Amino acid sequence: MAEKKEHKIIQSEAAKTASTKGVAAQQIAQSTVGLRIGSVVLWIVALVAEFLAIKASFVPSPAEDEEAVLFMGMAPFTALIVFLVIDLICVIAGSLLWKKANHIHPASEKNALTFWLWNNLGVIMAAIAFIPFIILLLTNKNADQKTKTVGTIVAVVAMLIAGFSSYDYNPYSAEEQQEILKMEEATATVFWTEGGKVFHIYEDCQHLNKSEELHQTTTQEAEEAGKERLCKTCLKRHEKEAVEAPATEEPAAVEESTEAEEQEVEESVEE
Asked: Distance between CA 271 and CA 269 in Å, rounded?
């Protein structure tokens, strides 16, 4: 076995501050309270718009010789369409904010039902924002055929648009975020030598044992210096540690506790 040499580390300025600049680290540091509140407010406005559309559909159609009946300054049919459009816009806007918040602070996959509900809340709101209107419009005896037909078609199309726009086609989990965070932490700064073609995430990698001088830089700087890829040995070690970490965390804690107890016993004996 080759004798391991003590390394002289040449650290770049960017490497000194790179450890906390990963995407996952930045996401975890962000607050999603504003996005969540914005979503809820927009969805409430959407439900109010749906209620007003329902109210407009119940305004009786006037006879031809009577003065036109208005609903909030508009003809009832026009008001119905206007409020359905407002309903659609608010549902989609709220869902987009909710999806953005989910990709910053995602839900855990440990509970499949909760994870599904959290990621599909926008779709559920799209259904709530239009299905009651459709049912009440179709069962409304006072609405004329034109209002029922056109109103139902507009509501169904709006619901489908809102549903497809609200659906998260790439749901993101807390577990995935933690994996990315671990990789970012491992590769925030890397080590490489002048003559090598790869960069390493572990200073004690066996391939660096003979090297006296190591450069510690960001991954981008390593690639700019001609380092083509991550060392396969480092990658395998990182993947192995990521798998073993959950299983070893608890025993490690127990070991630390045991050592502390032994130290207390020794101190008491000495006294």
From this structure: 5
